[in-house]
Amino acid sequence: MSAQGGALAAPAPREIRGPSALGGDWRRFLHLTWLIAVTEFRLTYFGSVLGYLWSLMRPLLFFGVLYLVFAEIANFGAKIPYYPVLLLANIVLISFFQEATGAAVTAVVNRENLVRKMHFPRMVIPLSIVLTSTMNLGLNLIAVFAFILIYGVPVQATWLLLPVLLVPLVMFTAGVSMLLSSLYVRFRDVQPIWSVISQLLFYGSPVLYTVQSIGDSQLEHLYMFNPLACILTQMRQWIIDPSAPSWIDAAGGFPLALVPVAIFVTVCVLGWWVFDHEAPRIAELL
Amino acid sequence: MIQRHAAIEVERLEKTFRVPKQHIHTIKERALHPFRRTEYDVYDVLRGVSFDIKSGEFFGIVGRNGSGKSTLLKCLAGIYKADTGKIRIAGRLAPFIELGVGFNPDLTALDNVVLNAVMMGLSPKEARERFDAVMAFAELEDFLDMKLKNYSSGMQVRLAFSVMVQVDADVLLIDEVLAVGDAAFQQKCFDVFYRLRDEGRTIVLVTHQMPIVEQFSHRALLLNDGKIDVIGDPGEVARRYLDLNFAHMETEPAMSRATVARPVGAWASDVAGTRLDTVTAGETLVLNLEVDVRERVESPDLGIWLQTRDGTRMFYTSTEHAGRRPDAFEPGERLHLRVRADTPLRAGRYFIGATLKRGGGHDDLLFAEPHVGDFTIVGDADYGLLTVEHELELERGLERAPQ
Predict the structure, then answer these.
(1) How far is A200 from chain B, CA to nearest CA, in Å?
(2) Quick count: other Cβ atoms within 10 Å of Cβ B360?
(3) Pairing of β B328-329 and β B275-276
(4) Which of B348, B354, B349 is nearest to B371 (CA)?
(5) pLDDT tens digit sequence for B227-277
(6) Which of A119, A214, B44, B217 gives a 20 to 30 Å CA spacing to A110?
(7) Rounded to 5 degrees, what are φ and ψ at A262?
(8) pLDDT band per the 50, 70, 90 thresholds, residue A239
(9) A18 touches chain B (CB under 8 A)
């Protein structure tokens, strides 16, 4: 705007309603989320010399330990076809959930300075963390498929359905992340509580074992209320062993299978709703 | 002329902070005392503030600490949600509550500039296009690939300020960010302020440095206790601000050494002693300064000066010019200093400053107040500050000697 410009078209006045979760401008929201996620991703990968190797080493080492204990010493997976690659794929997926939600808990509070002094859509904070973890997951999945091929798992058309598994996983992770990061602003014991729940979910999901190892069909149906269990079970059928049951079968057929869907939707909507509700006041509560 | 539309409209803005007396920080406490009512301390920080800022205006918001000015700015910036009332802003808004918020020390200047600019509403593409301009303005072209943690704090501030200038927002909200940086950088900031103002940007500056308000603002607003005390002419607002500060000092004597003695007023008058708000250029005028003495001041030296709106001191004199210093000013005295002067000053607004020093070895400064009073000189609107006695001669000849 210059004084020489004469009578410029006046920009329409808009009302300033204070901070919100999304900020009303979708493009800015997406740009910012993407930019922060990519920046964080690059920092982890190009920050140190070994960069990507280190990030890959973590799930691999974890896998190595679990494999040694459960497959070699306890002879745990003897009856499960392709147990080592199943274990690896499970670990990569569940670690994504654990890492993203674990980082999201303190995310808003850690960016206190930014939140109190800058105007930007608050939802960017948890979602950019989930997005960074998703990029990480993508890289790790490349390694997983390399192992799957090396191990001799037959190539299947259902591999193409992988995104159908990843979308609900990422959505669920995002829902939990939104919920945790906004609750932590008010309650500081959310962090220790979540680290316990996160551990419970690790052992309460079919990571080290399969649903059928439970052996009791009613218990199995209850167990499948956990949306993560559904995702891992379906992953096993589509990616590794076509003879394994689908998540609907494991959950006990059609009406029962709606329970994990309902839980999934509830968590996502609740996370969204709580974050959206808290967003305007976060700057004052910090 | 530009048709001035309102850039910012604020209507009956209210903001209350409720600070719980006992904080419940954990779910455990909440679960153990599910029915405990939390008691709150209630702070009414803004109590019904309404004002308009026209497009292209440089608007100062001043107020003492705790007056609500920072809260008002944060509401305008959309960081706090107001309880009631409406804020409407036309055009893109760039708030600068603090320079360099969100800079990541592990990233290079490019990444930080892009991130910062996108946060202020540019698209990543626009941000990248402006990067060169940002670095040029910050004079950091030689440090493009350096991580920010290797920048000095001065360089970081320059970078942040440069981003703010290059974002090209229509409305800038600035909170005392400029108290940082060295003198050269501050000068650059002031140059930018002049430029942005002349470009017709709307700028809201929160500060308690009155010279800056008077130098730049078209209008200003004084906030006191969450309400608008006065709004309008910056000089008026600055004077009222100083009054408020003095009133406050009287209730809190330990606050300032100005309690030893303080200037109560300064004005211009004619030779007969009639107070004048406007003086005709070239007429003899008398500068008057009144000072109340509260405590004994030994070997004092009372000084008076004239300065322009942008802080340039035009003239200084003090009681020492009259010869020997008095032994002391006694408590309860009211001093009236008169300086009769034929000034060469031309049309403009002038501010009367006052200073009091206490002797005894080194001089001890008791106060130095740049704006105790002011007056306007009217006259020919010629170029220049001073009328200078001079002679002029013009010699005319041919550009080249004829062949």
Answers:
(1) 19
(2) 8
(3) unpaired
(4) B354
(5) 898 998 988 888 888 777 766 554 443 334 456 888 888 999 988 888 888
(6) B44
(7) -65, -40
(8) very high
(9) yes
Written as six digits, the tokens of A260 are 């994990």
Q: Which two tokens stand for residue B231?
A: 């709004």
- Residue B40 to chain A, least CA–CA distance (Å): 13
SS3 B221: strand
How many Å apart are CA A95 and CA A270, to the nearest integer? 23
Burial class from Cβ neighbours inside 10 Å (0-12, 13-18, 19+) for residue B48 reads: middle
Q: Following DSSP, what letter does each residue of B325-340 receive, concatenated?
A: PPSEEPTT-EEEEEEE
Q: Which residues of B217-234 are buried (b: 16+ CB within 10 A; e: fewer)?
A: bebbbbbbebebbbbeeb
Query: B204: buried, middle or exposed (CB in 10 Å: 19+, 13-18, 0-12)?
Result: buried
Kindly list the strands in the beta sheet with B285-293, ordered across the sheet, starting from the edge strand earlier in the chain.
B275-276, B261-269, B285-293, B334-341
Q: What's the rounded mean pLDDT across residues B212-224?
A: 87
CB atoms B79 and A12 under 8 Å: no
The burial class, CB within 10 Å (0-12 / 13-18 / 19+), for B292 is middle
Q: Give the pTM.
A: 0.72
Chain B: residue nearest A120 by CA?
B119
| B266: amino acid identity, one letter | A
Closest by alpha carbon to A279, among A108, A127, A134, A146? A108
Provide the angle, in degrees to the nearest 10, between the axes of the packed helices B183-198 and B153-166.
0
Max CA distance (Å), chain B: 110
Judge whether B69 and B80 are in contact, CB under 8 Å: no
Reduced DSSP (H G I as helix, E B as strand, rest coil) percent helix, strand, coil of chain A, to 5: 75, 0, 25
Angle value at C-alpha A126, between A120 and A130, nearest 5 degrees? 130
Among the listed residues B223, B213, B221, B219, the one whose alpha carbon sits nearest the alpha carbon of residue B193: B213
- Calculate the CA A158 to chain-centre distance: 22
Q: Which residue type does A245 have? A: P
- ipTM rounded to 2 decimals: 0.80
DSSP A238: I
- Classify strands B300-307 and B313-318 as parallel, antiparallel or unpaired: antiparallel
Say yes or no for a CB contact (<8 Å) between B101 and A43: no
Using CB atoms within 10 A of its CB, is residue A1 exposed (0-12), middle (13-18) or buried (19+)? middle
Write the residue in A7, A8, A43 that is nearest to B106 by C-beta.
A43
Q: What is the DSSP string of A18-66?
A: ---SSTT-HHHHHHHHHHHHHHHHHHHHHSSSSHHHHHHHHHHHHHHHH
Amino acid at A116: R
Angle between helices A83-105 and A227-235 (to 10 degrees): 150
Q: What is the three-class DSSP state of B360?
A: coil
Tens of pLDDT, residue by residue over B373-399, are 888 888 765 667 788 888 988 888 887
Residue B79 and residue A119: Cβ atoms within 8 Å?
yes
